[in-house]
Amino acid sequence: ESFPPLRDEAAVRVLRGRMKGIQGHCNSCYMDAALFSLFSCTSVLDSMLFKPFLLCDRNVQSILRDEIVNPLRKTGFVRARSVMHLREQLTEKGQCSSFTNAEKDPEEFLNLIMHQILGIEPLLKLQSGGQEQDCYCHQIFMDKQEDLVVPHVQQLVEHSFLSSDLKLVEIPSCFIIQMPRFGKEYKMFSKIIPSLELDITDLLLDSPRECCICGDVATLECS
């Protein structure tokens, strides 16, 4: 039996409290946080759980669906053993032998499971310096901004795209964003406020926008 993502009051009732979420074990935090974000309250990537992609590994797909996502949506809790089962499969299928014990970058995990194991098409098309690139998520890189003490996600995405000279070639079906982090010793921001909606108008390539001076369709863009 499959369960839909949790919404509104149901999400609060099922996910809040002790022994809720995905149980951490042996440096699994990067994967736990990514899986919780991707599946607990949204169905936008449920194709990963059901669709028979061309290169799809059905064993990994069934572990992801039956041992992680469905228990999370049904009871609000996933035991560490289930995540370890997935990590063992990723170690076996991937080129890296340390998925079961080492902390990884979430982008490395997403690239492995989406591209190499499930065979999903890239979710993002970006342009930088006239060159297009495909990817599965956008990791925010930016210099320290003194005026951003407790930023919103909207601000961080805009700063990141501006500093890296990036544009979205098209509106993505799913926009996965990795927040800035610098390991255990240094955090750029102590807190980041989630933006419940993300305005990507200024991030789109060749998107018609209003001139801030005359109100007509803009023909020039100033950084």
Structural notes for this entry:
Its main location: cytoplasm. It is found in: Cytoplasm, Cytoskeleton, Spindle. One of its GO terms (molecular function) is cysteine-type deubiquitinase activity. It comes from Aramus guarauna (Limpkin). By secondary structure, the protein is of the alpha/beta class. It has two domains: 8-117, Cathepsin B, Chain A (Alpha-Beta Complex), CATH 3.90.70.10; 124-218, no CATH class. The chain is built from seven helices and seven strands. The protein has helices spanning 8-15, 29-39, 47-50, 58-75, 80-93, 106-117, 153-163, and strands at residues 21-22, 77-78, 124-128, 131-135, 138-139, 166-168, 177-178. α4 packs antiparallel against α5.
List the helices and strands and how they pair.
Blueprint: H1 8-15, E1 21-22, H2 29-39, H3 47-50, H4 58-75, E2 77-78, H5 80-93, H6 106-117, E3 124-128, E4 131-135, E5 138-139, H7 153-163, E6 166-168, E7 177-178
Parallel strand pairs: 1-2, 5-7
Antiparallel strand pairs: 3-4, 3-6
Keywords: Cytoplasm, Hydrolase, Microtubule
GO molecular function: cysteine-type deubiquitinase activity
InterPro entries: Papain-like_cys_pep_sf (IPR038765), Peptidase_C19_UCH (IPR001394), USP_CS (IPR018200)
List keywords for this structure.
single chain; 223 residues; Cathepsin B, Chain A; 3-stranded antiparallel beta sheet; two-stranded parallel sheet; cysteine-type deubiquitinase activity; Papain-like_cys_pep_sf; Peptidase_C19_UCH; CYLD hydrolase
Number of helices: 7
* Helical content (DSSP H or I, runs of 4+): 25-40%
End-to-end separation in angstroms reads 51 Å
CATH H-level superfamily of the largest domain: Cysteine proteinases
Strand order of the largest sheet: 4-3-6
Tell me the number of structural domains: 2
- The structural class is alpha/beta
* Oligomeric composition of the shown chains: single chain
* Broad CATH class of the largest domain: Alpha Beta
Q: Provide the gyration radius in Å.
A: 19 Å
What's the main sheet like? 3 strands, antiparallel
Mean pLDDT: 90
Parts with pLDDT < 50 across at least 5 consecutive residues: none
The general outline is globular
Q: What is the correct CATH architecture of the largest domain?
A: Alpha-Beta Complex
* CATH structural fold name of the largest domain: Cathepsin B, Chain A
- SSE arrangement, N to C: HEHHHEHHEEEHEE
